[in-house]
Amino acid sequence: MHQDHPEVFPQRHTMSASGGGRRALRVGLGGPVGSGKTATVAALCRALRDEVAIGVVTNDIYTREDADFLLRQAVLAPERITAVETGACPHTAIRDDISANLEAVEDLEEQAGPLDLVLLESGGDNLTATFSKGLVDVQIFVIDVAGGDDIPRKGGPGVTTSDLLVVNKVDLAEHVGADLDRMATDAAAQRGGLPTVFTSVARGQGIEPVAAWIRERLARKAAGAA
Amino acid sequence: MSAALLLLADGRFPAGGHAHSGGAETAVAEGRITDAATLAEFCRGRLHTTGLVAAALAAAATAGADPLALDGAADARTPSPVLRAVSRRLGRQLLRAARAAWPSPALDRLGAARPRGAHQPVVLGVAARAAGLTPLDAARATAYEAVSSPATATVRLLALDPFESAAVLARLGPEVDAVAEAAEAAARRALSEGLDALPAASAPLLDIGAERHAAWPTRLFTS
Fold it and tell me: Which Pfam families does this chain map to (chain B) (predicted)?
């Protein structure tokens, strides 16, 4: 079975004015533009919303499209979905200056809480974008087979260090000449035992292993792994 | 000049500023900023109006004026509801970073009294005091931010040559210093004469632009 990062809920100093108390598990979803982050968030909401209280923070680059998509799909009540504007630098808002996102999460928990799970979706960015440990507990990196089957081999922080790597759109593999076996082998070599799952979210396939992975994190948090 | 001032004024200090253009996004879209020369004029206008007001508020907070009274003075000097909300949001974000950098009871008290955020220059002034800085330091950091924020945003919005943008800021340097000194003098007067002695210069086009910008369906910057 796969290894996980040993430090699951690292110490955090978020300097919130409102202080401590119970808070939700925060899961970041990053990855390149068009890889299926929003569709993955929607599918996770549908898979988990009857079990746990979920909130979503989207980081749209210049519109509210992602938040509006989730609202249109009615995956959650409107007050459970909020959007952060990122000033042309989506990676800054999730890594270098996380203050706006921290605020969005705290406001969501305060106004729609208590929540068990907050999904933070980054704006579509490049292969080096990762979430700060001050913002999320764990992160999922979403790539897709149509973006090139050499992405796992090329590596980069998203591919190599994310807690879960999701390779989406496997139904397109034969049309774009992507070699799934090679992607799996390269991902395993780059990730030192961290898990990778293959999905076809738009076709309703493969979200269950991702949902199960989040359930396990929730259980660990409930068991006091923090 | 202390290292704490460099940190407080650093554009990379994680206090939320990167998502704001200081009104430059509207000015670019409406054709008022098109190149380095028009950027310089925009920055000069902002510096001598809202920049001066913000710098004086910050200096007064560092000098020990009541932060909550200053927060009210900032409200009275910010006619645009959008800009009032932006200033409070940035104040809340700055407070978080400042509490991590320079823990102090004064910052904790301000956060408890204004959990949704005090005005950004007021927070900056209290943070500067916690960092051991002077009122003039706080005024300098605030006046510089009045010009550096639109200059940085314009590099992204117009693909303006970053060297030209840096040169604009360098040429504005003496004016930034002069505004900071005037702001500090006003803050000192306010301590003895009351907060009405603080400047109340305004830039109506910045207010109008901010209100319009907030209604755009698509934008790169929050303000």
Answer: UreF
